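Worked example (supplementary).
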Amino acid sequence: MNTPKAVGTRRTVLAIAALGASALLLAMAGTPLLANQTAATTPTADTKPDVKVDAQECATCHETSVKGSRGTPHASLEQACGSCHGDVSGHLQSVTEKGEPGPITSLAKAKPADVNKTCLTCHEKGHQSTFAGSVHDRRDVSCTSCHSVHSFQSVRNQLKTARDQDTCFTCHQQIRAKGLRTSHHPVREGKIGCGDCHDPHEGSKPKMLKTEWITETCLTCHTEKRGPFLWEHAPVRENCALCHDPHGSNHDKLLVAKQPFLCQRCHLNTRHPGTLYDQTNTSAGRTTGGTGITTVSNRAVEHACKNCHQNVHGGNAPSGPYLGR
Amino acid sequence: MTRACVLTFVLSAATSLALAQDPSATPSPSPDNFEEGEFSLGVGQTDNDTLSSKFEEYRDLPNGLFAPSFKFRGEHNGLLWNFVGRDIQERDQQYWLDVRKGSLSIEGDYNQIPHNFGNNGHTLLESTSEGTWQTTDALQRNFQTAITSVPQSQVTFPFLNNLVTPSLAAANSVDLSLQRERGRVSFNVAPDGPFEVKVAYFRERRVGDRAASGTAFGFGNVVELPEPLHYLTQDFGADASFSGDWGVLRAGLHYNWFENRVETLAFDNPFRITDSTDASAYQAPGTQSVNGPVFGLMALPPDNSALTGTLGATFLFAKRTRVSANVSIGQWTQDSSPFIPYTTNTAILGETSTGATFPATDPGRLPASHLDGKMDVTSFNLSATTRPIDKLTLVARGRRYEQSNDTARITFPGYVRFDAVWEEIPRINVPYGFKNNAFDAIASYDFGKVTVDAGYKHRGMERTFRETEDTSENTFVSNVDVRVADWAILRGSFELGSRDYEHAEMERSEEASFVNPGDPVNVFAIPPPTEDPRFATTFNSLCGVGGAICNLRYDQAKKDVTRIGAQAQLTPTGDASFNVAYWRTEDDYTESTYGLTNAKYDTITLEGDYTPSDRVTVFAFYTWEKLADAQRGRQSGSSISSNPLDDWTADVEDNVNTFGAGGTFALVKDEWFLDVSGHYQKADGNNDIFAPPGGAPANARTNVGGPTDITAYDDTKFARIGGELRYAFAKSWTAALGGFFEDYEVEDSNTEGLSNYVPGSFFLAAQDADYQGAVGYLRFTYRW
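After joint prediction of all chains, the assembly is encoded as:
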């Protein structure tokens, strides 16, 4: 039982947390750390260029690359191309004098760990701060496996493909097959993407989800199912994936199995919930007896159990303990 | 604390940080003035050979003049802008905007998502206002007169079918469709600086009808209707981070609230013009009763809200050591939507625990006017990773997540079943909650050509009001990457785990909502003799004499988990790559003989791409999947059967094959281009049904030769082929001729051949099945 006092206490905690966060950030705004940030965002010592070379000079040979990053935050970095590629002045000198690349850092040829080290010099903040040690990091997925600074195709996040799912399907092919199922989220139509539920940089949460728990991920779009409700359905409260496969299914509503069999995995009650329904109870397989009564059952067709137990995600009607109102 | 206070904190924090920002911390942009953009315009034609909604399930396809996209992008003296639009003015239009200057940026997007569930459904009712579906009094009167003017024994399905068929022939047509309109805008301070502050607002409106609402008047009278939606979800919040070479501090506060503008659904009973009740009314109309209410009322999702605050930090140390901690505290509430009354049926009297009666239609007689629903949602994550030596990575993560349901419990003296009959069974709501405790530890060592991961995962669940108090799952995980050559990587993955439970009390879940629990009526609530000897015979018939508990639900039952994977990634030349992978997942419920007993998923994938020149790229893929589930049930009468012959099994197997291929070709360099792609998926499902001879399930089917497999369980074929030929006929102009063709066939055992009236039910039978559809278009694009 949540007393008014308990509710008030919790809200006070939240308020203090918000105030504390604000105060902490404000306090830090006045610390020398802020002034040191410029150093923190510059390349590491071993890659830091001695002389700044303007991107326009690089464009003499690398026109497509320079033009490709035009208008992005990368194009306005203080050290220009040298921010990521190291000693571009040495490279320019070597190319001019010897016809050799010289001391340039080619991220296309670098090992994943070195690529990530370069990118995380500036980007190890926000959720990228937990990338280190994540499953993507341990599997040698580099930043440039998915992102491109010079020839990105997506509207946001500078991905190599126009839609984020096409980037993800490069490795997660079985998810692409699931996405072609009859029951699916509008991923293949491009209305949502993998990044709506997953954060590929997030190393601290299961399945790299963006939220703290799988149901919270689903509730981002399906807020009407958040409740709490008068009549709750325990597995719904706990984990949507007990009944749904968000990547695609052959069954209505992304269900992992067809009703009534899905419901009968937990509800083998007396009378109709425990009853066997077979082909003869479906519309396609119905049979008609001598009285003209067909064997089709309203518990085995259309939405099956949900034909009556409509509020399966939780109900608010006083007469709805069986989620039928 | 009021909502206004929360927002004030957020805004004050964000504003303060913006003001506190040191301009020197922002990299000075080098002016690179430019403007570029493109705009496309075309004419298209869509053709669909059926009324099926599936062809345009989540999209709006062009007919006539259409504008598929535009893109404006540029920079002027440090002001950067990027504005992109797709499917302009279509139902699935989408826009992105990004404007930034120095340390400030504004991002926004707007996305419309149509969802077409079915076309041309048929119903005797019509929508008279939002949330109200009615039929005419004349039809209700005619039907009631018809079913009450013959002996009750004659009110059979053939009688009812003959009665309703003429009206259904002239029934209203309804398309089931909803529209999501979601917009988001965020104001970012210093997205590239040490301080990053984002204040964001999100708003989504959902309007339409969802398929479909099972509005029933009992077992014998389901009236399927569209479920009306008029939802509004909003989220306002702020996130801030401060980063340096020492690490990152993060904080955020979000308030998310959901409003339902249609909180109830009222729906007429086609068979009643006057209210009436009797003990069997929820089986009407039929040979047992012809009674029931004039109309029913259903509660739709109530308003709710969530307030969440987060605080976290990641600290960076030497040897790539990272330590992160994150705390999230939130509260979900549902306390503003009024309860609907027990019933709409004026003939029903409720009864208190003292035996006093009251009109059950009076909401004032409810023990509460609304729910005092509250959940405290708390999360704590702690993770650490390090590379103590160059080739060794160690990762440890711990987390605790809790949904503590503090919703007030309300005792009801009884309830009305399907607006038809008062059930004098006192009930009390059950505020389910849970805690999850998780711990992972993984070590990874790079031997040069071989990298080995090995680790351990623990997942623990503590639940309230469930059969088990605790379940604990422990898993050993390993992964081996072998770099056979610069162009070949072989990967093997293996996970082996098991889950166990503690403190099982079988009746705990089933009886929680009953004020006076009776005997268990669910196989999953039959206790072992050690818990309650009265049900020893039934339990022994389920699990064997002296057997372990075999009737736990699959979310808590003991299980062994196996995940095996093998993968080869080959790039033999710089212009070609191949990928071969096999994965198996199996959940084996080792002690379960009822409910789900085993679930397997196997998949093989082959994929390759080849780019022999900068003018040609081709790709192809194939995926084979096999899903296999096994479950067992027991059919019972008025009490749980103790006869094993009443058991039945359903073994489902789905085989899915998916092919795809495509290519991009520059036929004439910089002038003619061709893109083609296609895919085909075939799913073949079968539900193998078995029931032993002599049991109730088999005896009920003696006249049809016994239980029958459901052969066309979820059979689907989906093929798509498309292409586009583009011609750059001027420096800034491109013309494109393209289109695609789709062929979709489905045989789903739940919907195949469904008519508008079957025993006990009116169904909409909206069309969402087979189609052959095609789109062709001519598009011109101008770039500058």
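Two points are worth noting when inspecting this output. Residues 1-47+68-302 of chain B form one domain. The longest helix of chain B spans residues 3-20.
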